[in-house]
Structure formats: C-alpha cells, structure tokens
Amino acid sequence: MDFGLSGKVGIVTGASRGIGRAIAEMLAAEGMTLTLVARSADQLRALADSLKAPSLVQAVDLADPATPAAVVAATIEMFGRLDLLVNNAGATKRGDFLALTDEDWRDGFDLKFFGAMRCSRAAWPHLQASHGAIVNIAGIGGRTGTAEFTIGGSVNAALMNLTKALADRGVRDDVRVNAINPGSIATERLQLRLRSFASERGIDVARAETDMARAFNIARFGEPAEIARVVAFLASPLAQYCQGSIVDVDGGATRTL
Description:
seven-stranded parallel beta sheet; single chain; Rossmann fold
C-alpha cells in the first residue's frame, strides 16, 4: 500500500531490534529517509545496510539529556528537514513493587518518557515547518495496571498523557501527535518471558506460547510488523484527522474503555 510517505524524513528511536526495527523497515519500504537511533551501533549498522533507503545511524543513549537535541540536529544537518518522529525507545523493569529500587524507576522514566519528551521538544519546530507528525509507542500496561508492571505501566500512562497534551498543542501548530499501545508482541523480550513461563510450569516453549496467550485471553501474540503498519498509517496523509488518538494494537487484550 502507498502511504504517501515517499521522500519524507523520519527519526525512529529504539530502531535496532523488535518493534523499532520493523517500523524502520516499513517506513524505508515506503520510501522514507531515516535516522536510526539506539544504543547498539552494530545492530543499527546492520539494519542500515539492509534498508533500500538512505539512513543516518545514531548509536547514542537517549537517557542523556543532551542527546535528543543532538540527534535532531544531526538529522537536519544531513537531510535538511524532518517530517516524522517515532518515539519507540525504552524498556522498563518488571518485578515486585517492593523490590524495585529508585534507580529502576529512574531508568524507566529517563529513557522511555524523558527521552520521548526531549526528542519531541527538539523536533517540534522542524515538524511544525513540515506539517509533520509524532507517533509515540507506549503500551497497554498504561491502561490496565498489573502488580508486576508498576514501572512500565506508570511510564506508559505518562506517555499517553504527553501524547494528548502535545496533540492539543499540535492543533495550533499543525503537528499531528498520536500513540500506539502494543500488546504482547513477538519480540526478544516476549521470548524471555515465554521461556520463564515454560520453566516455571515444566512445559516446552510452544506450549507456553499457547497457554500464555490463553491466560491473556487473546488468540495469539502480535508481530512487530503489525505495529509498524499502524505507525505508517498514523504518519501518513491517510490519518490527517487523527490527533491525540491512542490506538490499542493488542489482539483484544484491553477490554476497558
């Protein structure tokens, strides 16, 4: 499908693997020029080599307060414009609330929330000039709290609120801001959870995948490409009337309003 993205320039954070890699591959296939951001230089270079589009590799840590502005500046210097920011970077620690440390909480907010906020702030004037868009990748844990996901749920809820606030500003500045809440997506992190689930129950991973999906009351786990397609839609002219939208892409796992 032609999403009308050819010739546009985007930044994808957390692009080295999983959902971020799938987003970069999808946008590049649609003809976008990309800045690829993550901490792993080797994985980013391998991704850049595989894409059939120009790309700029930025192997940096977005938890550093100065880094987001530097990434945006490098993008403008290299490509001369910016049309899309995809805030995907950031993983948060699971575990017993009483065992999670202040450092665990800081780590969770520093990369995923503050990284996204700072990237958005630095990118905003350029997106305003191009009538561009931001797509935030949050997560369904921000809608439905669970005991073992207190940090991630809190970060995702904050990112959803930031999405709404920036969308309100974006009405005036002609910048579209939307978010996606992925559910359980078949990434390396999910594979780790599946192996742990299998070990705890003395079953194989294939059985664990079926049982865990059933426990989540979904038919199956999602694929990274399914998130990437929604990103491409929200970034495109097809989604011109989407502003502050929070899209759950979770196989029906979220049943609340």
